[in-house]
Amino acid sequence: MQRFLLQRAIQSAVVLLGLSVLLFTLLVYTPGDPVELLAQANPEVQPEDVQRLRQYYGLDDPLIIRYLKWLRAVAHGDLGYSRTYSLPVRTLIGQRLGNTLLLVGTAFLIALVVGSAIGIYSALHQYSPADYGFTVFSFLGLAMPNFWQGIVLILIFAVWIPLFPAGGMTTPGVAPGWPMAWDRLWHLVLPVAVLATSGMASWTRYVRSSMLEVIRQDYVRTARAKGLPERRIVRRHALRNALLPVITLVALSIPGVLNGAVLTETVFSWPGMGLLLFQAVLGHDFNVAMAVLLFLALVTVGANLLADVAYAVVDPRIRYG
Amino acid sequence: MRRMAIAVGVAAILLVGGIVPLGAQQPKLTLPGIPNPGVASYAPEIGKYGGTYVISQISDPRTFNPIVAQDTASTAVTGALFEALVDQDYLTGEIVPGLAESWTVSQDGRTWTFTLREGIKWSDGQPLTTEDVAFSAQAIFTDGVDNSAVDLLTFQDQPLRWRVLDKRRIQFITPRAICPVGIFLRLIGAIDVVPKHKLADALAKGGAEFNRTWGINVNPKELVGTGPFILQSYVPGQRLTLLRNPNYWSVDKRGQRLPYLTRYILLIVPNLEQSRLKFLAGETDFYSARPREFAELKAQERQGSFAVYDGPETFGSEFLVLNQNPAGVGSGGLTPAQLSWFQDVRFRRALNHAIDRNTIVQQVYAGRATPSWSPISVGNKLYVNTNVPQYPYNLDRAQQLLAEAGYRKGADGLLRDAQGNVVEFTLQTNAGNTDREAIGNILRQDFVKLGMRVTFAPEAFPSLVSKLTGSYRWQAIIIGLTGGIEPSSGRNVYLSSGDLHMWRPNQEKPVNEWEAEVDRLFEQAACETDQAKRKTLYARWQQIYSEQAPMMWFSNPKTQPAVRNTIGNIKLGLQGVTGTLETRYYKTVYK
Q1: Using CA atoms, how far apart are residues B80 and A300, in angstroms rounded to an integer?
Q2: CA neighbours closer than 13 Å in the CB half-sphere of residue B21
Q3: Which of A135, B68, B249, B486 is the most exposed place for a label (fewest CB within 10 A)?
Q4: Per-residue pLDDT for B77 more than 70?
Q5: Interchain contact B159–A (C-beta under 8 A)
Q6: What are the pLDDT digits (tens) for B209-225?
Q7: What pLDDT is attached to residue A197?
Q8: What's the ipTM?
Q9: Of A87, A167, A266, which has the smallest distance from its Cβ to B217's Cβ?
Q10: Contacts of A36 in chain B (CB under 8 A)
């Protein structure tokens, strides 16, 4: 097991390094470097100034030199400065990470719990009207793009029927303590609804099919033949086995939820990592974009690793090594 | 955002060099310790104290240091915290007193003496003195400080000089060797006065340190200003909260101290769509709508308890320009035949008659624009010349003008010049700008009707700009310019030596007599401190440009500000500004 872990960790590190090269190259070749943008915005800027600034930012160095410089800084824990905010990137991410985790975590939990419950119910009542209803619902949830769903929800529940705020995370001037917690919750409802519906839809599909497969197995039939109560069959024999593949999926779907948060945060002006990335890319804030993208890559690789380990732990049939 | 509307004919009084007797006819309004406060006589209503005004903006500020702030997201905040010696009246564009209650200019027009209002205090209670003014000027001229005003205040390599006369009087001196600086008051109005007692240490450590000081993570208590508001808190990516400055130095017509509002909040939103939704949901009090949204918002006024105003035109405009530069001849650029058409004023006038401005206004701006014939926007009431020659849409007239210039339409329907070349060219604009792309299609259709072969090919903005300013290899381009109130801010476009003089930039000597005249007009205006005389000079320039049609303007888009009904003292000024921050107030009767 330890050897396996070590192997996978090394593999992950190599993948991350490769990804950083790829991301770096892509960002460097994004049209319009910051100095060019500055020159366009201000016709008074002289060509000499442009040259001086390019040199100052090291924009004229070869790609490989720029990458190595960046890598060395990152290895020392220095993610650089944000050009837009004139703050260390680390501070910025610190401010935003918690907000994203709150949003994504809440949505993920709701999606997982509600989605699984619906999936189990659908599987046990296959081809019932409720099963069809949930199937339609989950396809709708999967088919609707997050950003569109977000705008529609704001239009309905903030503009037409003003129940919830039209985006943002806090109301100015709310007293700290319970009122503030309540206010945060109130702001969470719509973005979480958007993120959760799409997540919920896929959980419903996964759990339903996994459950359907299991309840047709011989051992379930045996359990029934033994005369066990249906509740016990479902809980002890079917569900446990049906949720095995779902555990892997939980880990594997974490990056997907985070990516979904990029658009959702943008639509709801939720001050998280996604919005930060979006604005960094638009504003050519290289260090910030690079750091957030790398963070996403790290989460993806980490989640994969976690999935492998989790699988090994819960499924006695799988042994590495 | 904080002007006074008293100074009628300031410029005329300045010429004789006397002190301007402000508000002499009105009953004298005073504040404790401030015998001569600013008076917001332009505000239509007397407001109530209290309330919060909430708006949204697209980006986070980058700095709170007004000397180094350049982007609008930062200046939107610093504008409420800091003031300059003089101000611009938001209704008329005239220069009016600010921190300085009056000023005089010497006979030779090179020495300006400003007198501060007595008794103004910084928001921390320290008195404002001319030392602070001198310190602000010094900061601008300190090596390494990021500030664009330094170029404007340096005249042919000689910097502006100043001398503190006493606690309330300071002199600025422009170089003797150079003619008086016409727009000097506007330049001074661009310098926000900052507190020496807070920033002197940072400046002493050099420009780089000063640039970093008062960054966005500063403790708001450090931000000491003379503006109507002070910063209470800033949450990056979310909001800025500003509070009333109890030391502000202006009063309303009844002598009550301004501002009325207790709180002013700027929400940070990621895009215009969010900005609109926030306004519709009643979470913000102001939204600057786009032309196409006007009708839709108008229909929702009652339901949303807001009003959307039919605002005046912005200072910007889109236009068509034809390449007249011999350096542009070559592959990817002009053919010799094209160069000769584009240099021919008769050809340009004919094309100008084929531009259907009304269709552009209707289709591109949903009726929310005014046809434009001059480089100065209709909205710039101070300088626009509305009596320039116009080119109403008339294809027959265009055809006739072309025939007079020797162009013939053949049996195949194609237009040919006297040498038999088919008239064809490529029309470009920056891809992704849907307004300009729509205009391009309208133009192409009409030019084709004249028998021309026109290809419309939008291209990415950076490569378009590099063609305009670098390779000169282009034929016809649709592009836009934003304008300042003073035409001199467009010197690099209108002077024949300018690098943005798009149809033929960087001329060593003006090629055409009319370009030489425009150069002379601009040089004269630059030395003219009398605004009325500048207006005459610029009127002649607009006349010439319209006659010669080197640039063909389409229309000036209108503004359509939408304001919640709970907000008072709304009176539209230049570019659709709805009032000043300090006179804005919250009516409690609605809602």
Answers
A1: 45
A2: 4
A3: A135
A4: yes
A5: no
A6: 999 899 888 999 999 99
A7: 87
A8: 0.70
A9: A87
A10: 462
Determine the pLDDT at residue B7.
31
The amino acid that residue B203 corresponds to is L
Q: Are residues B553 and B563 in the same domain?
A: no
Residue B295: its pLDDT value, please? 92
Count CB pairs under 8 A between chains A and B.
Answer: 98
> Which residues in chain B are contacts of A159 at CB distance < 8 A?
277, 280-281
- Answer whether A271 sits within 8 Å of B237, measured CB to CB: yes
Distance from CA of A266 to the nearest CA of B (A): 6
Report the 10 Å Cβ neighbour count for A264.
28
Q: Max Cα separation, chain B?
A: 85
Q: Are residues B572 and B453 in the same domain?
A: no
What pLDDT is attached to residue B14?
A: 33
Query: What average pLDDT does this structure show over B72-100?
Result: 94
Q: Are residues A149 and A186 in the same domain?
A: yes
CATH number at residue A233: 1.10.3720.10
Q: Helix, strand or coil for residue A237? A: helix
pLDDT band at B17 (very low <50, low <70, confident <90, very high): very low
Residues A112 and A191 in one domain: yes
> How far is Cα A268 from Cα A158, in angstroms, rounded to an integer?
11
Interface with chain A: mutation pick from B273, B492, B499, highest number of A CBs within 10 Å: B273
The rounded distance, in Å, linking the Cα atoms of B233 and B303 is 33
Residue type present at position A180: M
Task: State pLDDT tens for residues A115-159.
Answer: 999 999 998 888 999 999 988 888 888 888 888 999 899 999 988
Percent of all residues in chain B with a pLDDT value above 70, rounded to a whole number: 95
Least confident range of A57-71, B363-377, B452-466, B506-520:
A57-71
Domains held by chain A: number: 2
Query: Cβ(A123)–Cβ(A212) under 8 Å?
Result: yes
Give residue B549's Cα distance to chain centre.
Answer: 23
B273 and B417 part of one domain:
no
Token pair of B435, please?
């307004």
* B462 with A168: Cβ contact below 8 A: no
**Sign of the torsion formed by the C-alpha atoms of A272, A278, A282 and A287:** positive
Give the Cα separation of B112 and B162 in Å (integer).
9
Q: Is the pLDDT reported for residue B538 higher than 50? A: yes
Phi, psi of A278 (to 5 degrees): -55, -50
* Residue B12 reports pLDDT greater than 70: no
The residue among B58, B269, B300 with the most chain A CBs within 10 A of its CB, best to mutate, is: B269
Same domain for B289 and B332, yes or no, is no
3-state class (DSSP) for residue B181: coil
Chain B residues lying within 8 Å of A84, measured CB to CB: 59-60, 62
Q: What is the mean pLDDT of residues B555-565?
A: 96
| CA–CA separation, A300 and A251 (whole Å) | 9
Residue A10 included in any domain: no
Residue tagged 């700095």 (tokens): B63
Q: Tokens in use for A8?
A: 């996978």
Q: What is the mean pLDDT of residues B41-70?
A: 92
- 8 Å CB contact between B202 and B213: yes
Whole-number pLDDT of residue A42:
56
Interface-testing mutation among B231, B239, B277, with chain A (most A C-beta atoms within 10 A):
B277
Mean pLDDT of B244-249: 96
Do B274 and B332 lie in a common domain? Answer: no
- Asked whether residue A321 carries a pLDDT value surpassing 80, the answer given is no
Q: In this structure, are residues B472 and B325 in contact, taking their beta carbons and an 8 Å threshold?
A: yes
Task: Name the pLDDT band for B529 (thresholds 50, 70, 90).
Answer: confident
The DSSP letter of residue B567 is E
Q: B298, B261, B319: which is closest to B557 by C-alpha?
A: B319
DSSP A198-256: HHHHHHHHHHHHHHHHHHTSHHHHHHHHTT--HHHIIIIIIIHHHHHHHHHHHHHHHHH
Structure tokens at B65: 């240091």
Dist CA A297 CA A286 (whole Å): 16
